[in-house]
Amino acid sequence: MTTILGLESSCDETAAALVTADRQILAHALAGQEDHHRAFGGVVPEIAARAHAELMTPLIETAFADADMSLDKIDAIAATAGPGLIGGVMVGLVSGKALAMATGKPLIAVNHLEGHALSPRLTDLSLSFPYLLLLVSGGHCQLLRVNGVGQYDRLATTIDDAAGEAFDKTAKILGLGFPGGPAVERAARTGDARAVPLPRPLAGSNEPHFSFAGLKSAVLRASESGNHKPEDIAASFQQAVVDCLEDRLRFSLERMPDAPPVLVVAGGVAANQAIRAMLKELAGQYAMRFVAPPLWLCTDNAAMIAWAGIERFSAGWSDPLDIAARPRWPLDEQAEAVRGAGVKA
Ligand code: KG4
Ligand code: ZN
What residue spans in the chain does CATH classification 3.30.420.40 cover? Predict the structure, then answer.
């Protein structure tokens, strides 16, 4: 059975995983770096790169030990080659190249976004192409039509901040800690989502794109006013994100007579229960099946990179050992840039 070692190091998660073509996750070792970055309230690229360099080799060893497997038994090595923080990406990619060179096995350079985009197929056996994908992470907020491996049409993107970025900044403003997304979700559980009036950027607009920067500024103003409890701001903010995503998705779905039969969500923000609940409801209204990966597969991990490697390897693709790391790497290279500063990849 084809088995691939996946390596991930594009942001603040160092990870190594062994996955088979028949969807067995033989091992998935992961080390977060929250403790390294907490004091700074966000990921510090240089600190992240150093931590990846320290953690990658022990994690690869852990993965092989957990799977009770040796290096000569794998068929290929898949490593994230971008987009992401370049110092970190290089650590994983160079580790992958070194292993490929030492073993003579093929290297597969994986786009981190493709890792997220294909991850639902690792755990949902019946998920076939095409599907509509909402990719919401710390660096991105995109609506994509996934037509096949390596075949993506970007239908919408954020014109400023990513959805996860908005969660992280809100957590920072409210002093809820780092990483922000889970902290805001936890605080929101005890808050009143109608307590704080916040904007729904781009809601009702006649373009399909997303925007979250105005929401973040409004959260800052609400917090500085001293009139609101942090949990009420958190709950109102989360509701605003849910409403924005719903409004923008409805806009696209209303104009998509040939919509794929499945709505899929992936990326770190897909771990959010309020967002998952809204998407499930929305999919039902459009007679679409809704698929969301398990929570651990939403946030960064190496199993999704190994799986994307399996998908590419099965299609007969591998990459030369001199392939370069790419800090920016859009899934849909044809997509036009949109206005604003949020064209992150
Ligand atoms: O996909 P991911 O792990 O890394 C990137 O590729 O960016 O996504 C990380 C993002 C962070 O912004 C984090 O705050 C957010 O996902 N996130 C969440 C939740 N869990 C993680 N946002 C909202 N609710 C959550 N439960
Ligand atoms: Zn990610």
Answer: 3-119+297-314, 129-292
Gap from CA of 181 to ligand 1 centroid (Å): 6
Residue nearest to atom 2 of ligand 1 (CA): 268
Say which ligand is closest to the CA of 297.
1
How far, in Å, is the centroid of ligand 2 from the Cα of 102? 28
Give me 258's structure tokens.
């040939």
Please state the pTM of the whole predicted model.
Answer: 0.96
Q: How far apart are CA 263 and CA 255, in angstroms?
A: 15
CATH superfamily entry for domain 129-292: ATPase, nucleotide binding domain (3.30.420.40)
Q: What token pair was written down for 110?
A: 């994986």
pLDDT digits (tens, 9 = 90+) for 55-75: 999 999 999 999 999 999 999
SS3 15: strand
In this structure, the strands spanning 262-266 and 131-136 are parallel
* Dist. CA 150–CA 136, nearest whole Å: 19
From ligand 1's centre to the CA of 136, what distance in Å? 8
Pairing state of beta strands 131-136 and 13-20? unpaired
What is the Rg, in whole angstroms, of the alpha carbon atoms belonging to the chain? 20
Angle ∠(344,315,2) on CA atoms, nearest 5: 105
CA dist., res. 311 & res. 58, Å (int) = 26
Q: Which of 13, 111, 134, 137 to mutate to test the pocket of ligand 1 (most atoms within 8 A of CB)?
A: 137
Q: Which ligand 1 atom lies nearest to the CA of residue 13?
A: 3
Fold that domain 3-119+297-314 belongs to in CATH? Nucleotidyltransferase; domain 5 (3.30.420)
Question: Residue 113 Cα, ligand 2 centroid: separation in angstroms?
Answer: 7
- The 10s digit of each residue's pLDDT in 205-223 is 999 999 999 999 999 999 9
Query: Where is average pLDDT lowest: 108-122, 275-289, 328-342?
Result: 328-342
- Distance from C-alpha of 37 to C-alpha of 23, rounded to nearest angstrom: 33
Residues with CB under 6 A from ligand 1: 11, 137-139, 164, 167-168, 179-182, 185, 267-269, 271-272, 299-300
Q: Do 196 and 232 touch, CB atoms closer than 8 A?
A: yes
